[in-house]
Amino acid sequence: MKKKTVFKCNSCGYISAGFFGKCPQCNEWGTIEEVEESSGAISSKTSSKKTKAKKLIDIKSQDSFRLKTDIEEFNRVMGGGIVRDSISILTAKPGAGKSTLLFQVANDLSEKGYKVLYASGEESENQIKQRAIRITKDISQNIYVYSDTILDNVLVEIDEIDPDFIIIDSIQTFTLNEYPSRAASPTQVMECAHKMVELAKNQERPRMVFLVGQMTKEDELAGARALEHLVDTVLIIEGENQEELRSLLTSKNRYGSTGEMGFFLMTEDGMMSLDNPSEYFMTVRKKGEEVPGSALSVVREGTRPIILEIEALTARSFLPYASRIGECIRREHLSTLISILEERASLRLIDKNVVIKTTGGIKLKETASNLAVMMSIVSSLLNKPIDIDTVFIGDVGLTGELKSVPSLELRLKEAERMGFKKAYVPEVSDRIKKSLKDIKVIECKTILDVIEKIMK
């Protein structure tokens, strides 16, 4: 007997006997899907095994809560390692290195004795093997691969192999037989993800699960927004395919800091962890090799301070309106800083094109780099270089006054660790100055004070 089907909106849950192009309840287009009336998409789910609520004080926490890999930048972004009963999703543009990074993590865990299952709905087993040969010479006996698009078959393999670490690449390519909708539909994606959550959170046999998620043209995780709420951690790889630098950041982490960022270099041997990014984001110059237009600041990516080089170029404009160019900074923000220099430091920039860039292409997201941006412009305009052992940390207000920034002590200690001798900052406490031994803290009240001390 043929099962009865109905039409359900995957956005608001509206159910009807007929098809609509536009949902009558939430007014969304293209969200109506045909599902079986008796399927899990309609009926409510109840657990076959009822558990009792426990007092929080009686629950025993596990000592080995996290598993650390040998990939330090990955550990940092995850909050110190992978939580044993967690489910995470990794997304990025095609070719950014999602599968490469996860295979490196899988290989690292397998060498530590953990059993790994790599299930792919996009690549054949031979393709996975070719990547493995490229990344590592010795393939562990603990890595299993399985190529299929039916999640039911993957679940059978999981029961037989009993892996500790599971990779689903990608979640949009898998389907469950009980749902008639196509792969990558909101119903299939969410139900497949729910299955993996149940697997990861099983109290008797917790597992580490990583889902690979496809990315849309708008650089967002493909699928329903509820997918991000479902998982514990959402990781994003950023970076252009033609460049070797990749940044791994977290937009959600139940077990660590949100906004944490790690850096990698994409090489022929895979993703190489960039454990000391300050060395990468600044040009190494010797004393006497300084160039005009370069200034150094200390920015924070997540919880970590990084020395960042900011370069500026000022050139005469032959057009009625001078250009303000900077991929690393908003044009409006750059125009504001230039206006402060003109009004508070009496520098003529109205007829000058100003171009700003950062080494490595890091975006200037916080105000702590404002002083360094302005000093790089001043250095270029006056054609006078700044000493290589100098950093600038501080915000600059519309009045030209220097403003304090968060985590100033942390930034100064990073500059001291990297061997810098002078730091131009707003007013700091005596406690911070006493905690620093090898760097001279030069307090300034206004941007004009800084210019006079540097360019004298």
Automatic annotation (TrEMBL):
Residues 63-215 form the RecA family profile domain. SUPFAM superfamilies: P-loop containing nucleoside triphosphate hydrolases, Ribosomal protein S5 domain 2-like. Keywords: ATP-binding, DNA damage, DNA repair, DNA-binding, Hydrolase, Metal-binding, Nucleotide-binding, Stress response, Zinc, Zinc-finger. It comes from the Bacteria. Residues 353-456 are annotated as: Lon-protease-like. A motif (RadA KNRFG motif) lies at residues 252-256. ATP binds at residues 92-99. Plays a role in repairing double-strand DNA breaks, probably involving stabilizing or processing branched DNA or blocked replication forks. This is DNA repair protein RadA. It comes from Peptoniphilus stercorisuis. The gene is radA.
